[in-house]
Known about the structure:
37% of the residues lie in helices and 18% in strands. The protein is built from 21 helices and 23 strands.
Amino acid sequence: MTKYILVSGGVVSGIGKGVIASSTGLLLKTTGLKVTAIKIDPYMNIDAGTMRPQEHGEVYVLNDGGEVDLDLGNYERYLNVTLSKDNNITTGKIYREVIEKERRGDYLGKTVQIVPHVTTAIQDWIERVSKIPVDETGEEPDVCIVELGGTVGDIESAPFVEAMRQFQFRVGHENFALIHVSLVPDMHGEQKTKPTQTTVHALRGLGLLPDLIACRLIVQKPLEPATKSKISMFCHVAPEQVVGVHDVSSVYHVPLLLQSQGIIQYLQKRLNLATIKITPQMQERGRSLENRWRELTKRQERLLDEVSIALVGKYTDMQDSYMSVVKSLEHSAFRCNRRLKLKWVDASDLEPEAQHTNPAKYHDAWRDVVSANGILVPGGFGVRGSEGMMLAIKWAREQKIPFLGICFGFQLAVVEWARNVCGMAGATSAEFDPKTPEPIIVFMPEISKTHMGGTMRLGLRPTVFEHDSENWSKVRKLYGGAGKIWERHRHRYEVNPALIDRLTESGMRFVGKDERGERMQVLELPDHPYFVGFQAHPEFCTRPLNPSPPFLGLIAAASGTTVLNEQLEIQLRSFKPPHPEGSMVDEASLRNDEPRPQGEEVILNSEQ
Length: 608
């Protein structure tokens, strides 16, 4: 029987439920258990694909093309698993499923209601998805972590809370545990417990009793014993059921912080985990994971040498918009034994207009760019900031500064080359000007022009390297010298096939293409320390102990030629793709050309 751990939140949202859920799963994996995770988002959207990054943070893309909440990225990175779009439940998905059943007549003429029909659909979904294998063993998981987004008491989450109240009886007491995450404010040095008392009272009134209360302190001061005792007394739990999660130097320390407070010993007793048979091989794998994680956190604290990266983007006011990009840089910096210094640069501040409208921001932005050891231009949509990004790309190319362009950044690197090397002064993207006479970037023919939700080129896709690239390509060496690689995509524009010859004749090398050789997917300049662009989003497949190769290359090159050569040798010897073997197949097998049901997509303005 699968064990279920529900992670809910109270008082305020965004206090770290995802990290606590992921850390709990990681600790369970260190004991040899197989762990999966599900995120519940109570919004009406079918998925996160049409949401503005400034409002909801990064849209995370899965192997199957699912556009999901960024917390699923936390799960994949911490647990080293590969999830599917069904691991993200939304109100929109549940209501759509219930309404489709009603239209088919599955309810046999009954009045369809929130209880029991919607709540039963939620429980069925969780139970079904919790059985799907997600790791290299190919076996059914032992434990499923379920994170309930938002806060208890929200009107949007009420059906999910009721569903989980019923679910605890459906699976049985020893198969269901609840971790409730609550804010403990620190006011002038005094830790206040009343918000936690109130949210636990509300939770108990809804029929859910917390087994563990995780107290978040937004300061670096640990939970005081007196505070712990007071929460224990007024929330009707034992003192060992109250754990403190204060701010630490890195989120990678959170699993060890929870472990030091006995959370695993409690869950082993509460869920009777001793009844699950764990093979010696899985036990050894768990011990190895724990040792490598501890070494990672220890090494991180000893880092002295610094590497600075300028992230030139559009959504820098909401840093969660680039969550996976930042994690990829962090993982790569750990590998290179460097302390990452990330400089956030709003691309609009680099444009000439900013010199007149806001000269202070203009000069600060350019100071960050020219002083950085490396430059990164991530994904995005729309014309805003694009000229500033191209100015940063031009600087990196001409000054031989290590550069990595991702998706939008890759496309702009091609446009910048066309303008300044090929002499095509009017070169631009059809996304910015559909009637441009020199469209370097064009709309892909198979993509819908009327609907935006779920209609991009999405999910895991193969890239084939040029046959002679093994002798010179740094990117190929970073992937262990493989002739074919797989990364996740999310785009609706591509390099114009009609202009490929003109671009390559001028010196641009498209070292990686799709299987038919028609779609440009990786560019690399041979005579540059590191100038690389990816149409894909390799940041979605990074792991703390297995960093994304293109980002590793950027950090290593920014750290110096010696570090880059060392990492190229290591990758050639030991790189292992993070994808399951069965997912690395040809594109025809991966592609899903069936159109989505009308009404599932939302029409948006291209400027996001």
